[in-house]
Write the structure tokens for this entry.
Amino acid sequence: MNDSLQNIPHVHDEAESLQTQHDEMLHRIGLLTRNLHESLRGLGFDKLLEQAAHGIPDARDRLNYVARMTEQAAERVLNATDIATPLQDELNQEAASLEARWKSILTVPSLKKDYDQVADETVAFMTKAVGHTDATKAQLLDIMMAQDFQDLTGQVIKKITELAQEIEQQLVQVLIDFSPTTVTKKEGDTGLMNGPQINPEAAIDVVASQEQVDDLLDSLGF
Amino acid sequence: MANPNTKFLVVDDFSTMRRIVRNLLKELGYNNVDEAEDGVMALAKLRSGNFDFVVSDWNMPNMDGLTMLQQIRADPALSSLPVLMVTAEAKKENIIAAAQAGANGYVVKPFTAATLDEKLSKIFEKLEKAGG
């Protein structure tokens, strides 16, 4: 009786300790799972931040490249047209002048000496025309070649667009996963200095053409 | 008709764009063209020279085109100077702000030689009418 009386709490203790051990085990498995989950999540974050940290200077370099290439191309085009334009002007003016002189000489059929003089000038002009058209063709070729930037910068821009899209997707996923309430999208408005409109048709408060500018000014009474 | 003596000031922070506008003006018969790369430099030139016309960008360092326009209108010596804005800024509030600040015209980049010609002619026409 005494034994049994003493045994009851003992048995009870044993059961209780088994239950406690079981709870402890579950608790520790829970903690481990949680740690593992958070570590993985942490690794994901690290990767994301690392990608963003690497990606942003890379994007900046690429944009600098685009700016440099387009500026170089524009300079080449302007230099080439600056060289070609006066050459064409000279040909134009001298051709017009010779045309006028031939026309006036031809009205007087007796002036052999004058014919010879204008003929000599015409031959000299032809020589010049050959030289200038060759020089102009070389400049036009350079104008054409300067357009190569479009291919190069186009590729670079495509890469940046992809990178930006990737970062955006990851950030959106982070927001979806961790935002307790609905995330309100902030407008990227910088007041009155927004620069060129990449996609004016898609925006409400933006004009898409010079006609729309004129219409708006007309409606304002300007 | 284009008066070849009309003295222009082209204000833009990109040398390429200044060169393009200068070449277009030359094509239209205006050979008297000077350049400035921001609003501060432009105001200094305008105050020291006899300019007849300003073609200006909007977004520039130091002083933007709108601020420059406002200062031109606030300066009794310059207030009647015609100013044509040539800018990539294409929001309606930009156009309204420029009109309210006293811009004589507004051209959105990228633009064509024909557009520039048309806007200049229109401004000269209006000035002649106003000037009698």
Q: What stands out?
A: Helices of chain A lie at 2-106, 112-146, 149-178, 210-219. Residues 102 and 118 of chain A are 7 Å apart (CA to CA). Residues 2-106 of chain A form the longest helix (105 residues). The radius of gyration of chain A is 41 Å.
